[in-house]
Request: fold
Amino acid sequence: MATTTHASAMAAATRARARGTTPSTSAPPTSASSRARPLAAARRRRDGATAAPTPHTIDYSTRRRRGYTSTTTLRATTTTTTTTAASAYEAFPEKWDVLRLAAEQRRGVGHSEEDRAAMEAAIDALVAAAAKRESDPHPATSPKRLTARWRLVWTSEKETLFLLEKFTAEAYQVIDVIGRKLANEVVFKGNGSVFVVDSAMNIASESKCAFDFIGARYEFDNPFKWVLRLPPVGRGWFENVYVDETMRCARDSRGDTLVVVRDE
Reply:
């Protein structure tokens, strides 16, 4: 079979030379997939690809058009997020040390004396570092800096820690400087119940706030909403030793410390 084909080719070449022409090598018939290859290559060049995908390589330029996100994009996003977090830590490590301890100590639930000492030392380091930075012109008790709904991330207060240990709950401190209102809330997850202690608040200095309890209530929401009101007890004060756009640290008249973050 190979000899016959070779002889036929030689004969064709001889006839071509006799006619004064050069024989051309005929290309095999092209299939639809063969004709599509140049178009696919052009699309890859347009999308920035340099080589055709192998059978085990995903053509991310095509998948991106279909609504997928490439591994390269995901890797870049993760790297950017990690880099941003690292940059934030490098910019103010004392702040992130406080937040790290708050997470490790489970908001203070079951904390030991050593845990408390570590947190107090971290807050002291944060306050000292903040004093060396350019200060905010607004005092720590100004409406701009203090008015917010703050979520508790660490406390030494036994009553709050008891509730956080026994129930699945979040604790908040809601402050309205202009309205002179302070509310401490514990929101119980699952049944929508809320325990609230309301206080009237006054600004005592650029960092200290005084308050008088005016009432407490337990709002049940399972299955019907009703309110159990409790008598107010006591008064006190708290001092904001550190406040920024996202976090606040305070120490109060009972010797307790709390760390809260702005709840958006």
